[in-house]
Amino acid sequence: MFELTMNSQTVTAEPGETILEVAVRHHIKIPTLCYLKDKHKIGSCRICVVEVKGSKNLMASCVTPVSKGMVIETHSPRVRKARKMLYELMLSDHPADCLHCERTSDCEFRQLGEILQVDQSRFTGQRSKNFNDTSSAAIVRDNNKCILCRRCVTVCNEIQHVGALNVQNRGFATEISPGSDLLLGTAVCAACGQCTLVCPVNALHEQDTTADCWKALADPEITVVVQTAPAVRCALGEPFGMPAGSLVTGKMAAALRRLGFDAVFDTNFTADLTILEEGYELLGRLAAAALERGDITAEHLSKLNLPEHLPDPVLPMITSCSPGWIKYAEHFYSDYLAHLSTCKSPHMMLGALTKTWYADQIGIDPAKLFVVSIMPCTAKKYEVVRPELTQDGFANVDAVLTTRELARMIQEAGIDFVHLPDEDFDTPMGMSTGAADIFGVTGGVMEAALRTVYEVVTGRELPFELLHVQPIVGLDRIKSASCTFSNVKPEWFFLEGVEAKIAVTSGLAGASELMEEIRAERSPYLFIEIMGCPGGCISGGGQPRPADETVREARLRAMYAEDEGKPIRKSHENPDVMKLYEAFLGQPGGEVSHHLLHTHYTVRNRY
Asked: What's the pLDDT at 182?
C-alpha cells in the first residue's frame, strides 16, 4: 500500500489500481458512462476525467493507474467544465425523446445529465446516425440513440465470444453494428440479449410484443394462456422497488390474472417434464452405447423401460433448454449438433401441450388459443418463430414477454404489485417440484437431472444432503463434478462402476471451451449443461437491469430457497406430470412425447 492525495485528502492505494478504483474504495464519486466494473474499461467516453498534477491533459480515471504521491482533483473547475462539454457534445447527437423512451426511468445517459447539471446542449448540427434495425426477432438496434460507449462490443466479443457487434467505420461515420453492412437479423447473432443488459441507453432493446398481448387479451374470441419461467419469480419485484432476489411467485400469478389472462400456468411444470424426457434420453444414449459395444443384448433392452427406438449413442449429451446456446451451436458447431438433446425447451413443451392436450381437455379449437410465455430471455423471442417449433400448423407459443415487458404491462394496468396477495397457479399445468425452480440458475438443470437419473438407475432415494451437487453450485464460468454408479438395479448392470463426469457452463465463452474439447476428441464428460447467459437465466437478456454480480448472487440464493421450500424436490415425483404420462404421453421419449416434445436443429453459416 502507498499514499496519494485526492481532493486534498490523503488516501491509500495498491499497485495496479486505477484512479477510479481508489476513488470508489474511498467513497469519492466520479461519474462514469462507458465503464462497467470488471468488464469494460477503455476510457472511450472521457466522462470520468480527472486532473492530475503535472499532467498536461485531463486523465480518464477508469484506465489511469495510480502512483505514489500522485495529486488528483476529481471535481476541479477544469474537470467540471470538460465533463459538461463532453456531455453536451454527446447530447447534441442524441434524440431528445426522453418522454417517449421506455428507458426514461433507468437511462444512464439521462441520469448522468442530472449529475452534471446539464439539461440542454449548446451545439446543433447534423446527426451522425439515423438508422433503426428491426430485422431480428429478438433485439432492436436503434443506432439513433447509440452513444458509442462500446459496452455491447465488449460483452458480445469478450464475454460471449459471438462477435455479432463491432465498431465499424471511423470518425463521424463510426457506428456499432455487424460487419459488411449486415442487419442484426441476418448476422451471426445468438439473440442472447446480453447487449441489452449493458446498453446504458435504449440503443439495444428487446422486440416489444406487449401490443400483441394486449390485443389478444382484449379479444373475447381468444383464450389467452400464460406461463412463467423459473427465473422471472426472483427478479420481477425489482422494477417495483423490491430488493434483488425477492421471491414474488404468488404476486406474479395474481398480477397475471388481473391483467386478464384466462389460464395462468407455470413453465416449471414442463421443466419437470423436461427432466423426465432429457434424463431418459441420456439413459437411452448410454444403453445404445452399451449395445454398440456388445455389453448388452437387444433382448435386455426390454427390461430398461426405454423407448423402442433408442437415440444415437452420441456422448457427451448436452442440454437444449437455452435457445441462445442452440443458435450459437448451429452457427459455430454445426458439425456437432448430434450432441444436443432433442428436447424442446420447457416453455415450448408447455405450448405444444396447450395447443393439443389442453385444448382437447377444455374443448377449444387450438386456433382460438393464444399462448404467452413470460421469460427472462430475449432469445426466446427468436425461438418461437423457428419453423421447427410448430405443431399441426400452429406455433407452440405465440408471443414472448421478457420480465421487463411484463413489469411495464403491470405498471400500465395500474396494478399495485407490491401489495398483491399471493395466489397459486392454475391446474393442470401449475404443479412443480423444487427441481424445476433451479432451472433458472446455472447448474440447476444438471442437478435436477441427477436427482432423477440416480433414482432411476439405483432404485434408491437420493439422500437429502446430496440433493445439491455442491461442485456445480455457484457462478463460476465452468464447473465440473464426478460420480460413480454403484449398487445399481440389476437391469442397469452395464452402468455399475461407470464414472459419470459432468460439466456445467453459463455464457457462450464457456460453451466454446467445452465444445472445443469435444472437437478435439478429448472431452471426458458424459453430460454437459450449457446456458447461454452468464449465471444462467437469472441474468438473462430480458431481466431487469442491472445484472451485476451482487444482483446475480441474490437471485441465485432466491432460486435455491424456492427449491428448498418445496415439499417435493424431484421431477419424477411430480404427481401431475406422472398423470400426464399415464393419460396422454405414454412414456418418456415414446411416440407421443417424441412427436410433441422433441425437435431437430438447423445447420447455419458461421459467417
From this structure: 94
Which residue pairs, CB below 8 angstroms and at least 24 apart, start in 563-570?
Answer: 563/434, 563/435, 563/437, 563/438, 564/434, 565/434, 566/432, 566/433, 566/434, 566/437, 568/433, 568/434, 569/433, 569/434, 569/435, 569/451, 569/467, 570/433, 570/434, 570/435, 570/451, 570/452, 570/455, 570/462
CA distance 326 to 337: 9
Round to whole Å and give the CA distance between 46 and 82: 9
Low-confidence ranges of the chain (pLDDT < 70): none
The domain limits of the chain are: 2-91, 126-206, 208-607
Q: Report H helices in 384-539.
A: 403-412, 434-437, 444-458, 508-519
The pLDDT score that the predictor gives to residue 124 is 87
Gap between the Cα atoms of 136 and 128, Å rounded = 23
- Number of H helices and E strands in the chain, helices first, is 20, 20
In this structure, are residues 554 and 535 in contact, taking their beta carbons and an 8 Å threshold?
no
Q: What are φ and ψ of residue 361, in 5° steps?
A: -60, -40
> What pLDDT score was predicted for residue 606?
84
State whether residue 49 is helix, strand or coil. strand
> Tell me, what's the pLDDT at 524?
97
* Burial of 350 (C-beta count, 10 Å sphere; 0-12/13-18/19+): buried
Separation CA 47–CA 452 (nearest Å)? 53
With helix as H, strand as E and coil as C, how does 476-495 read? Answer: CCEEEEEEECCCCCHHHHHH
126-206, what's its fold?
Answer: Alpha-Beta Plaits (3.30.70)
The Cα–Cα gap between 386 and 383 comes to: 5
Residue 359 parent element (H or E) = helix 359-362
All three cell numbers of 248: 414474488
Q: What are phi and psi of 577, to 5 degrees?
A: -65, -45
39 touches 155 (CB < 8 A):
yes
pLDDT recorded at residue 453: 95
Q: Which of 181, 189, 176, 191 is nearest to 139 (CA)?
A: 191
Intra-chain end-to-end CA distance of the chain, in Å = 49
> Quick one: which H or E segment has residue 210?
helix 210-218
Q: How far apart are CA 33 and CA 60, in angstroms?
A: 12
Q: What is the DSSP letter of 371?
A: E
- Choose which CATH entry (3.40.50.150, 3.10.20.740, 3.90.190.20, 1.10.1740.10) describes domain 2-91: 3.10.20.740
Q: List active site positions.
A: 278, 281, 321, 341, 380, 383, 388, 537
Which cell is 317 given? 449429451
Whose cell is 441476418? That residue is 186
d(CA 281, CA 290): 14
Q: 208-607 adopts what CATH topology?
A: Rossmann fold (3.40.50)
Q: Cβ distance 372 to 202 under 8 Å?
A: no
| pLDDT score, position 309 | 86
Q: What is the pLDDT of residue 555?
A: 97
